[in-house]
Amino acid sequence: MLAVDGISVRFGGITALDGVAFSVEPGTAVGLIGPNGAGKTTLFNCLTRRCTPDAGTVRFEDEDLLALPPHSVAGRGIARTFQNLGLFPRLTVRENVMVGAHNRGRAGHLAAALRLPRVRREERELRDQADELLRRLGLADVADHPASGLPFGTLKRVELARALAVRPRLLLLDEPVNGLSHGEVDEFADLVRAVRDDFDLTLVVVEHHMGFVMGLCDKVVCLDFGRKIAEGPPEEIQRDPAVIEAYLGVAA
Amino acid sequence: MSMNVATLGTDRARRLRAALTALLAVAAVVGAPFYFAPFQVFQLTMVLLYAVALAGLNLLVGFGGQISLGHGAFFAAGAYTAAVMLDRYDTGHLATLPVAAAGCFLLGLGFGVPALRLRGLYLALVTLSFAVFLPPLLKRLEPVTGGSMGLTVDKLQPPAWSGLAEDQWMYFVVLAVATVALLLARNLLRSRVGRALLAVRDNESAAEVMGVRLSLHKTLAFAWSAMFAGVAGCVYTWVIGFVSPDSFSFVLSITLLAGLVVGGLASLYGPLLGAAFVMYVPSVAQDISEAAPGVVFGLLIIAVMFVAPTGLAGLAGRVRGVITPLLTRTKPSAAVRTPESEPPSAPPAPAETAPADAEPVGAPPRTEKE
């Protein structure tokens, strides 16, 4: 479904990614792990066209992703969440989710200003769909609350709801359980598993929480200093000496 | 559950109150020109006219998170379009409106392109330069614009069937234009494109990931905004019957921006309050001090921003935000409850349960990247 081949990104003298290659099969969940600064988020940014690699290719369902303008990525069925929340703080929770559905709407500026009947209809549909998603993720109570000043765990779910509103086939989660309490992590993991089945999603997850990654993913890719140092099923990765040295560490 | 019932009850009461307020407002607005003296009606007409320009500026600054110190120039462009058409081609008044609107829309589209690459102070500077350079240009183009002497054209005359005086007729025409303009702005904001605009303001990169085409929405925001200013300018010509380069110095642009900030950024009725401020406060300042009205005007702006940093439109919300906790101190606020799925270990975070309207509606636009 997604094939990343030999991508390299350099920022000045720093090589953030150096010839990284891996593939994601439909319906699977792939974990990206590695120490801070290993290039995981940069890789995500390449997949969503926030950053253009200096070399390499990214193909999504046999289409060259790097040839697309950034705003077209969502329309192809790719959504993401952000490491430190990328919500719109002054919009309500519902509006945030409705922005996620932006690429499915058709209303243009003129039609919207005149509020033509089809715009009304579209607004109603998008609103209903957003409310349905909010209910599904247990956010109906905060739908009209601005997306700031809510507990962090709630905002993480809002961001997931917004990403699901894109109707993605590939969902990229950037540190989804970072900053959550122990109980919240388990709950979020259950939620991700549930929506993965419900919405038939393929997942790529960047996360430091090993329990979350190992429990969710079918395959794990480990990066260090921009290079892939290991790839394989979770059990193998946990035993891989290179991964242990670079990232997991050995017991004293 | 009782909490829910209470919320429903207040919801209905609030809706009823809103309907009553709207009805009273409509009655007041329609009755005003028959109650007030002609000069006061003229002042009200000017308030409505400025409100159109401010509503346009609000689309750009309040909702779009961009900035313009050049809206006086779009206003002037609209005014001169109308004046030149009336003076040289003797078209009717109504014919000038679509031309001024379309012309300023295109002009705004043109300015929207540099705005894609500039932000904050840099954008302010570029738009200010437009406002600074337009009046001398108008003076130079004497054959068309009448140079420094300006152009005197016919004011809008009431048709015989209306039975209204000139000031009353103008008031109603401007009222109609302002109503349509404010409705268009409101419709725009309550749609997919409006949300896209707000999303771009709040977090550009997240908006783009969600499929929002930044260049399209940012340039169109500029174009709409310029169009509103141009329409206001066109109507200004109808009402005043005279345009000259000195009426549209760059001070007008700054006054418009100040009016908007005082009225309330990103608020639907902030432009109306801001327009009233722009219209009445200078004359109030004149009354207080004949020697230095500018100083009084400036001090009044400072005073308003001190009392209501989110603008006059946010004042009611702020007052409510202060009073409500005092009234409901005994019972926890029902505005936000943490969802049931929240683990029991997580505290209900009482600090986060402030009512939604305590959130500043018109917090100043943030221009830095996340």
From TrEMBL, chain B:
Low complexity bias (residue ranges): 351-360
Localisation per UniProt entry: Cell membrane
Region (Disordered): 332-370
Gene Ontology molecular functions: branched-chain amino acid transmembrane transporter activity
Membrane-topology descriptor: Multi-pass membrane protein
Keyword set, alphabetical order: Cell membrane, Membrane, Transmembrane, Transmembrane helix
GO cellular component entries: plasma membrane
Major localisation: membrane
Name recorded for this polypeptide: Branched-chain amino acid ABC transporter permease
Spans through the membrane: 41-61, 68-86, 92-113, 120-138, 169-189, 220-243, 249-282, 294-316
InterPro entries for the chain: ABC_transp_permease (IPR001851), LivM-like (IPR043428)
Keyword Nucleotidyltransferase on entry: no
A Pfam family the protein falls into: BPD_transp_2
Superkingdom assignment: Bacteria
Pro residues biased stretches: 341-350
